[in-house]
Design goal:
Transmembrane segments: 6-24
Protein name: NADH dehydrogenase subunit 1
Strand content: under 5%
Structural class: mainly alpha
Organism: Duvalius auberti magdalenae
Largest sheet: none
Helix content: over 70%
Shape: rod-shaped
Keywords: Membrane, Mitochondrion, Transmembrane, Transmembrane helix
Length: 25
Amino acid sequence: MFLMDVMISLILMILLIICILVGVA
């Protein structure tokens, strides 16, 4: 279960970074 939480957090962080990059670009 811990691994799943880490994967979800990682995916959300990546999506957030992509949104920021798209917003800046």
